[in-house]
Design a protein that fits this description.
Blueprint: H1 2-22, E1 37-44, E2 70-75, E3 90-94, E4 97-98, E5 103-109, E6 116-122, E7 130-131, E8 137-139, E9 147-152, E10 167-173, E11 182-187, E12 196-198, E13 208-213, E14 221-228, E15 239-243, E16 249-255, E17 286-293, E18 303-306, E19 312-314, E20 317-319, E21 323-330, E22 337-344, E23 347-348, E24 362-366, E25 371-377, H2 392-396, E26 406-407, E27 412-414, E28 424-431, E29 435-438, E30 441-444, E31 448-457, E32 464-473
Parallel strand pairs: 1-9, 10-16, 17-25, 26-32
Antiparallel strand pairs: 1-5, 2-3, 2-6, 4-5, 6-7, 6-8, 10-13, 11-12, 11-14, 14-15, 17-21, 18-19, 18-22, 20-21, 22-23, 22-24, 27-30, 28-31, 29-30, 31-32
């Protein structure tokens, strides 16, 4: 009976609505209240506070912690209930929690907020408060829903995803050069997060390198094991702990000859038969890695000499994307510069442009700690600290395609005006007088051999070099 009454009521309501609709009455769906929007700020600091005295009320002693006294000065958002907010659109938003990235704050913004200004600062009185950078950061909130941003001390960029780029590089040397089967396994608090990390397939100046992306930016240590055989239950090895730097890169060194037998395996936790010497400094000194590019790939005989050791170091290891590698060590760990000279017998790279009183070919490198990577190109003064594109000759060897090698007397053939390295060609010598060049064509004049000397002009060795082609004329 009740079910029948409910059906009748639904029918009556439908009829009433239909009647109102046909009578011209239009219904609009009810507009619900705009959903609140929130902004979450993640803030990472690598150093301790430097503004820490009783007078400013931040903390009683220095150092006092990385985040004590810090807050976020925010403007351009409909804010209320926060310290210092006099107009409802600017306020000091306090840190409300900590996470694995650092400090964290979440606050609500109004529906009309489009650009929200942000300064991370210590203190609450602008007479002595201090921002971490003078550049103002601006947040573009999502039109609907919440917005999450990440910022780092001293970095003006505002990130929309976790910018953690910290890396642990594990350098491993085996005197037998047998690295097959060896890798690194990370050791995380949750074992399901452990991952295997392979060593590089090419040697650097010390050995092989395994690179671990550190999971969290605020981590102070990273645990790992050096192992052979993957997840084989027959091998257990010591757990190493690397103390991480605050900077992007942390480097540690493992030298296999420090172990009692390079393939010794032990039960986990047993250090009786194993020298567990993980070194935070390269045992040979601070490493200088020089990536050197010669467009014609003529590296034979070329060496680099450092004034730090006076030894000629060969360019032996292949840098597949650039050229060759030359390596040297600076034993003085406090040194901030090192001078190198690239020579081949009496020939000196970078000889032109040197003062008559200069040493010729010298380049001064600024050292950046335990590893300094620099990129040099033949004949160039520039010293780059970031990976460079090689000159075109490295990729194409400056070969000229489709050059005719045989011509009949009186016939002609077009000459390509660009090489496959996209360098312009200028033809400046023809010998002997068996042919001539006219309107971009080589013309056979009499039987014999015509030799073309070709200068390729472009971003190559000394900006120009010569190739020779011979055409047989019959």
């Amino acid at each position: 009976m009740n079910a029948h009454i409910i059906r009748v009521k639904k029918i009556l309501i439908a009829v009433m609505l239909l009647g109102l609709s046909t009578a011209g009455v239009i219904f609009s769906p009810a507009q619900g209240a705009t959903a609140p929007r929130h902004i979450t700020i993640h803030y990472y600091r690598a150093t301790l506070n430097s503004l820490a005295t009783v007078a400013n009320g931040v903390c009683a002693a220095d150092p006092c912690g990385k985040y004590d006294g810090w807050n976020f000065w925010v403007w351009g958002a409909a804010l209320s209930g926060y310290s210092g907010s006099t107009d409802g659109f600017s306020a000091a938003v306090p840190i409300d929690s900590m996470d694995k990235f650092g400090a964290k704050a979440t606050f609500e913004i109004g529906s009309s907020s489009n650009d929200v200004g942000l300064l991370a600062r210590i203190g609450s009185n602008w007479a002595w408060a201090k921002a971490d950078i003078t550049v103002e950061r601006y947040i573009k909130p999502n039109p609907t829903g919440d917005t999450e941003v990440w910022i780092k001390e001293g970095d003006p960029l505002l990130y929309t995803s976790n910018p953690n780029d910290r890396v642990l590089r594990i350098h491993y040397n085996r005197s037998d050069n047998k690295y097959s089967g060896w890798d690194i396994q990370t050791q995380e608090s949750n074992p399901t997060d452990n991952k295997a990390v392979a060593f590089s397939t090419r040697n650097d100046c010390f050995g092989r390198v395994a690179t671990i992306q550190v999971p969290e930016i605020s981590q102070s240590t990273q645990d790992y094991i050096l192992r052979k055989g993957g997840n084989s239950g027959t091998l257990k090895s010591h757990v190493f702990t690397a103390n991480l730097n605050e900077s992007k890169y942390t480097d540690v060194w493992l030298n296999a000859n420090l172990f009692l037998g390079e393939d010794t395996t032990i039960d986990e936790g047993d250090s009786t038969f194993l020298d567990l010497n993980q070194q935070d400094q390269n045992p040979n000194g601070n490493l200088v890695v020089v990536h050197y590019s010669r467009p014609l790939q003529d590296y034979s005989g070329w060496t680099m000499t450092t004034l730090a050791d006076g030894i000629k170091h060969k360019f032996t290891a292949v840098d597949p994307l650039f050229g060759r590698l030359g390596c040297a060590y600076v034993l003085d760990l406090t040194a901030t510069t090192s001078i190198i000279k690239v020579t081949n017998g009496s020939k000196v790279d970078l000889t032109f442009g040197e003062a008559s009183t200069g040493l010729g070919g010298q380049r001064t490198l600024h050292l950046s700690g335990v590893i300094t990577d620099v990129w040099l190109k033949q004949g160039r003064r520039d010293i780059w600290d970031k990976e460079q594109e090689p000159d075109p000759a490295v990729k194409a060897f400056q070969k000229i395609g489709k050059v005719v090698t045989h011509l009949k007397v009186g016939k002609s053939a077009a000459i390509p005006m660009k090489s496959n390295a996209n360098l312009k060609l200028s033809w400046y010598v023809i010998t002997p007088a068996n042919c001539k060049i006219s309107a971009g064509k080589v013309i056979a004049r009499k039987p014999g051999t015509c030799k073309l000397d070709v200068t390729q002009v472009g971003n190559a060795a000394f900006n120009a070099f010569t190739l020779q082609y011979r055409i047989t004329i019959s």
